[in-house]
Automatic annotation (TrEMBL):
Record keywords, A-Z: Pyridoxal phosphate, Transferase
Sequence similarity: Belongs to the trans-sulfuration enzymes family.
Required co-factors: pyridoxal 5'-phosphate
Its EC number(s): 4.4.1.2
Gene Ontology BP terms: cysteine biosynthetic process from serine; L-homocysteine biosynthetic process; transsulfuration
Gene3D superfamilies to which the protein is assigned, alphabetical: Aspartate Aminotransferase, domain 1, Type I PLP-dependent aspartate aminotransferase-like (Major domain)
GO molecular function: cysteine synthase activity; homocysteine desulfhydrase activity; methionine gamma-lyase activity; O-acetylhomoserine aminocarboxypropyltransferase activity; pyridoxal phosphate binding
The protein's name: homocysteine desulfhydrase
Transmembrane segment boundaries: none
Catalytic activity: L-homocysteine + H2O = 2-oxobutanoate + hydrogen sulfide + NH4(+) + H(+); L-methionine + H2O = methanethiol + 2-oxobutanoate + NH4(+)
Organism: Gryllotalpicola protaetiae
Signal sequence range: none
Amino acid sequence: MGNTEWGFSTEQVHAGIRPDGGHGARITPVYLSNGFLFDDFDQARERFAGESEGYYYTRYGNPTIAAVERKLAGLEHGVDALAVASGQAALTIAFLTLLKQGDHVVSARSIYEGTRGLLREDFARFGITATFATDPNDAEALAAAFQPNTKAVFIETIPNPRNDVPDLELVTRVAHEHGVPVIVDNTLGTPFHIRPIEHGADLVVHSTSKFLSGHGSAIGGAIVDSGSKYLTDAFADGHTVNDETFTQKARSLAGRFGPTLSPFNAFLLQHGIETLSLRMREQSGNALKVAQWLESRPEVASIDYSGLDSSPYHANAERYLENGYGAVFAFTLRGGLPAAEALINGVTLWSRMTHLGDVRSLILHPASTTHIHLTAAELAENGIEPGTIRLSVGIEDVSDLIADLEQALVAD
Ligand SMILES: Cc1ncc(COP(=O)(O)O)c(C=O)c1O
C-alpha cells in the first residue's frame, strides 16, 4: 500500500496512488455511479463471486473510495482498509465484524462519549456487553476486566477529551495474552503522531471527518486492517463462512448494514489527507502554546493536555507520540459553570461547535452538550466538571487564538 521507507509527507501524497485507468487522470476522479457495467454474463458472475477484480455496486466498492482506502492503509502501515460513512459507522462495523451475541468487550473508560454510549447502551440491546477499565495502564486491573467471553479490547490513542494517553504496548500485550485483538481509535492521534499498528494494535479506526479531512465538510470513517492473526483467530469460532480476511468480512458486513461513504466525500477526504502533516504540525504546535498559556492563568484549575510536563500522561505521550501531542484537549475553570458559560459566550474567533480536527479552532462545554445525558456521578467518573471546556485548536495565528480566549476570560 505504502512505502515504509518514505517520510510521512511523501507518503501522505503518494501512498496508494495508482494511475487512473483510461484517461490518465492524476487524481482519482469522483465516480458518482451507483453501479458498474459488466462486459458479459461471466464477468457479472465473477464479480459477485469475488473471482475477478473490479466493481459492481458502490455499496461494496467504488474506485474513488478504493483510492482513499489504499491511501489510509498505506499511511497507517496496514495491509488493507475499509472506508465507511462516518467514524461511528467505522466503530460499529469494526466491532460487529469481530463480535456476536454473547460476546464481551474490554474498553478503556476514557473514550469518546458516542463510542461509550454505543458499547454501553446500543450493543447491550443485542447481547454484546462491555466492561470499562478505569486505568488501562494498570496491567493487573486491565487483566481483571477480562471474561471468558471477551473478544476485543478498545482504546483511543489520545482519548477525547481527557488526553489520558494509554500505554499502548501494555494494552496490546495483555489483550494478546488473552488471545484477543485490540481496536484502536486513532482519530485524535492521526498517523502523523502515532501509527498504532507499529505498537501491536490489530485494527485502527478513524473518524475521517476530523483531522484526516481537516476541512470539516465531509463526514466519513475508516477501519485499517493490520492483517494480524488475532483478527483471523477471532473468526475461528464459526461465525464466518470461510477464510476471508478481516477487511473482506467487514466489507460484506458494511455492504449489508449499508453505511456507504459517498464517493464525493471520499474525494474530499483524499484531498484533506494530502496536507495532513502541514496542518497537524501547526495545530499541535498551537495547541501546546494555548495549553501552556492556560497553565499560567489564575482562572484555570487544571488542564488535560498530554503535551504538558505537568500531565500524568506526559511520559506515555513522550513514548508514543511523534511530532507533537495532538490538538484536542480539555481544561477546567475554577469558576465552574458560570465561568464556562461566560467563556463560551465571550469568544469571537473560536467557533462554538461540536466537531474537532478542523482547520478552524473550536470550543465546546462537554457537560451541557456531548455529556448532557450523564448523571453527576458519571460526569465525575469521566472527569467532566461543570467548568470543563474542550478545545480543538486550528491553524490560525496562535496569538489571535490566545487573545480571544484572554478577552473572554477577563470579561467574566
Ligand atoms: C475519537 C472519536 N471517534 C469517533 C468519533 C465519531 O466520528 P463521526 O462523527 O465521524 O461519526 C468521534 C467524533 O467526535 C471521535 O471524537
